[in-house]
Structure prediction request, 344 residues.
Amino acid sequence: MRNNVTNSKENIFYLAGFPRSGTTWFANILNSHPKVIYRHEIIGRNHHIFGKDLYDALIHNNGLSNNEFNLLKKRISEARVDTDKPPFFYKDYGLLKYKKIHYYAWILAKALPFLSSLYKILFTTSPQGNFNFLIKETRTARNLDSIISGMRPSAILFLVRKPHGTIASHIKGIQKNTMPSVNSDRKKQWYRNNKQTTYILEQGLTESDFNDMNQIAFFAIQWRVYHDELLSYAKKFPRAHFYSYEAFVEDPQTNTELLLSNIQLDNDENVYRFISDSSGKNNTDKNPKDASNEYYSVYRKSTFNHESWKDVLSEDDIKIIDEHTSVTYQIISDSYFNNQNKTV
Prediction:
């Protein structure tokens, strides 16, 4: 028997967003809660942990049997160096109560792979424990309906950042050599994977068009197709809700209070301490380092400006982005952002 997410709720939160939309920071707002265990990119980057049969069922079967789901939960509950990611926070369980021990154990296991089995033993939690598992993905929206049906999440969270900020962040990453450049092969591969999507068909775009377009247009079309797919999933799954990255940056306290209420988590001082730390207001209580490069860090400087894209993008860039993305962004904004106080 296979179960659909609309008929079953489990202690899983599923978070999706386009790359460079602030999903890691947003995920850690929830991760800083003592009752949330965070797994980073467990499907897109680390799907081998499920095994081929279970992964194929998750991606293609639009629901899992109870036995398959129990195995999925077991894999999600297992601590792994590749799916755990700093910063680490206090949790109400075992060694997870000691965030500095967790951090240095993770560092050692990452540097010395033979210690990864010990790390797994020390920091794994019970699949049926009094926790919510947070799964965050940014890779692709393809097959997301099957993934959501299989995971049976109690909350489905779609984080949306204005396309201008997202695309400008990609451009900065390419300039700093922290993200790969957009070459012809990358554009061709993306086109071949997405050529049957509604927007590509409506625009009559060909592989040759993609080969000739600049990286701004390429990212804008990617953003449009990704968010069109999220909109289609939101119609299918009533518990899917969109959240505005800009709203959380501008007023994180109010929006976090609403978010925690929506997903039925109590307010906790650890959450608001992280919000303060990550906004550059307070640097006294964080781990030594949470990312190999400041570009990927969730801890922002106090001078951070989420509208700095205005200094990065030219008028022509903005025009191209608006041409491809404005309709979809407006639909999301009008239909969902004003309804964030509705419970999931």
Q: What stands out?
A: The two ends are 26 Å apart (CA to CA). The chain has a mean pLDDT of 91. The longest strand covers residues 10-17. The CA atoms of residues 84 and 205 lie 39 Å apart.
